[in-house]
Please model this.
Amino acid sequence: MDRRFQVFVSSTFRDLQDERQQVMQALLELDCMPSGMELFPASDESKWTLITRVIDDCDYYLVIIGGRYGSVDADGISFTEREYDYAVKAKIPVLAFLHNDPDAIPAGRSELDRAAREKLDAFRAKAETRICKHWRTPEELGGVVSRSLIQMIKLQPREGWVRARFASSPEELQKLRSKIDDLTAKLEAARTEPPADALRMAQGAQVFRVRYKLTSGKERVVDLSWDSIFACLGPTMFDEASEVDLVKTLDNRISQEAGFQRWQVDVRDEDFQTIKVQLRALGLIQKSIRKRSLKDTGTYWALTPYGEHYATVLKAIPG
Model:
């Protein structure tokens, strides 16, 4: 009987977004159903009650451990470690994926607080007492997860989910239908709703002062709203765009605003990086995961489903 397995993916979030994306893609390619906090709908339930309920419904549990310990509860234990302990206690098969060289992780994605670092080291040591694998890059992590989960399914087969026509009871049918409805609603929400954290960030009509230099050496500034910046850059990423092309597009936008030729304008790299980080934090763009040759070392960006929706609304001509 064809079964599909539900897999809970646990990790800190902001520092491991690329890694989580690779893992989610790997799970979907294995016909598994991923579950994680970014897919959870708004709910009146307490956060921990919702987490445990979802973990209980899963067949396997994966934890990704990078350079951060994460936000902690009232007892000083991170939600990631607490989820891990709960899955172990619930006797759900657990796979841990640890960064192979945490000292090499950039400072911006690592714990700088000594106490948090010690807790992270202890968590890593705990995870290494059970089945675990190591990784260095997001792309490598995706492959390691695929191979490890295939082996785990063979060694510890679980109940999984079956197609409706194979369901043995009306209750199982209803449970599967509800799960499909929930996943469909979550995916649709991801296409049209920003991340929860975006609500407290600068966006829309709020202005960002962009600094640029002319070929003459003079430095100038121009005030652009976040909507106008995204309306400029967004359409170039409907497929994908290199970082170099994005800079050129922004230079061209500013040159038109200021009345110069494009080649005369050079946006400060610091400000471009701020724009890139802000659009990513708003849930509008993501790193492209398209495979390319080893010789191509450029960075490429693409729209998220929500970003594609937002760019379409910004650029479409109203009736």
Remarks:
- DSSP finds ten helices and 13 strands in the chain.
- The longest strand covers residues 207-214.
- The first helix runs from residue 17 to 29.
